[in-house]
Design a protein that fits this description.
Helix content: under 10%
Strand content: 35-45%
Largest sheet: 5 strands, antiparallel
Radius of gyration: 15 Å
Distance between the termini: 47 Å
Shape: globular
Length: 73
Amino acid sequence: MNDKNLKIQAEIVNGICPTCEELTMLVGVTRSFYRCMTCGSDLHQHINGKISYLPALNPPPGTRPFVKEWTVE
């Protein structure tokens, strides 16, 4: 493949990260996964009347994920 024809575009949005609770830039890794530029958390975008970003959880086998409570304003 010729490197001259390769173009990468990342979507960058502003939002509040539910992990660090900061207003920050979120960089689109894929169409539905974003990464917080402040704390580095991977977030999953949910669209249900409004756009929400929730932590992307991948717990180790045999464990349950723990998410601290947060409020959405």
